[in-house]
Amino acid sequence: MSVTSPKDAPGRGSEAVDPAAFTALVAPLRRELHAHCYRMLGSTHDADDALQEALLRAWRGLPGFAGRGSLRSWLYTVATRTCLDLVAGRRRRALPVDLGPASERAVPDNRPADHIAWLGPYPDADLAAGPAAPDVRYERREAVELAFVAALQHLPGNQRAALLLFDVLGFSAAEIAAMMHTSTTSVNSALARARRMVAERVPAASQQRTLRTLDDARLREIVTGYATALENGDADALIALLTEDVTWSMPPMPQWYRGLAAVMDFARQAPLTRCGSWRHLPTSANGQPAVASYLRRGATGPYLPWSINVLTLRGARIAEITSFLEVTHFPAFGLPDALPPTRGAGRHVVAPPGIA
User: Fold this and answer.
1) By C-alpha distance, which of 294, 197, 293 is closest to 248?
2) How are beta strands 256-258 and 277-285 bridged, if at all?
3) What region holds the RNA polymerase sigma factor 70 region 4 type domain (predicted)?
């Protein structure tokens, strides 16, 4: 992303600021600022827009900043206010589990719910840690985990911002009050309410803690086993990887499934038998292991992007599968836009409408 040039956005003395110099100045902070925007907004695409707007605002306001205070603090102020403006005018982002009870059987006529603002996955491969106070509550990768980001979406904007700025980024209550044009008392009150709500929705053991108990070889076995089970249509192999209370959701499809019986009924009705021929690539999303699924409908031709499947683990088993079906997620992960056919790879079965 390049900073808009003066001729594109004149005013407020921005003509005196060299766009190239400003881009170089903010470059070390861009990745963590983008992650902050994602946490606030629950969408990589919204985070792209918010960061673009925030950097444009910052560039325009740079002459007024004139080095007063920390550049990082000032940029977070601009980014947070930009996100709060967007939060105020948009619906909160959700996952299917937020909208209603689980389905007990596979839903064959499942259709996308395009009227819902869906939470999206986050490509975290090069997520920068950045500086933070030693007493922050959440590691940076913990703070992009699906459960945490989904919980944030239930908070009002001011509580969301206070929690992230204090518990993730390490700003003081006084600094946050100045950023948000409010009092320290109001920040502390918002922070307390936000912590209570998040504690009710986020598991005590983060995915980062779970992943630290698994060695790399075991983690590869889980990810490879999931992909191979789907490619081979192997229900028994998939069952062996799942917890008894596993959930599977597929935004933008509103239906979701809980428990081994319901999840496997869906799996047998759709991805294991009737969707088409699968190929997969391992990736990482939201600080969690993930698998990119590519689907081929016919007997020949390339495999095309289908879903980013984020795996939530409990111990060495998969407790949640969140399959983000929008192919628009793929570019942000640097994934190829197609996979070539490979002799003997995958299966081919024609899927009925609405299943996949």
Assistant:
1) 293
2) unpaired
3) 147-196
Place of tokens 């933070």: 132
Q: Where are the domains of the chain?
A: 101-125+138-145+206-356
Cα angle for residues 320, 280, 329 (degrees, 5° grid): 70
Which helix (H) or strand (E) covers residue 309, if one does? Answer: strand 304-314
CA distance 60 to 281: 42
Distance CA 13, CA 200 (A): 47
What is d(CA 102, CA 116) in angstroms, rounded to the nearest whole number?
17
Q: Select from 248, 29, 54, 251 the least CA-distant residue to 153.
A: 251
With tokens 């004139």, the residue in question is 66
What's the pLDDT at 356? 36
Do residues 121 and 324 make contact, with C-beta atoms less than 8 angstroms apart? yes
CA dist., res. 145 & res. 40, Å (int): 13
Q: How many residues does the chain have?
A: 356
Q: In what order do the strands lie in the sheet with 256-258?
A: 256-258, 242-249, 317-324, 304-314, 288-296, 277-285
When pLDDT is cut at 50, 70 and 90, the band that residue 312 belongs to is very high
Nearest to 195 by CA among 144, 134, 129, 138: 138
Looking from the CA of 189 toward its CB, the CA atoms found within 13 Å total: 5
The pLDDT tens digits of the residues spanning 283-292 come to 999 999 999 9
CATH of domain 101-125+138-145+206-356: 3.10.450.50
- pTM, two decimals, is 0.89
Token pair in block for residue 81: 């206010």
The CA distances from residue 195 to 20, 67, 201, in Å, are: 40, 34, 10
- Tokens for 178, please give them: 């100045």
Is residue 296 helix, strand or coil?
Answer: strand
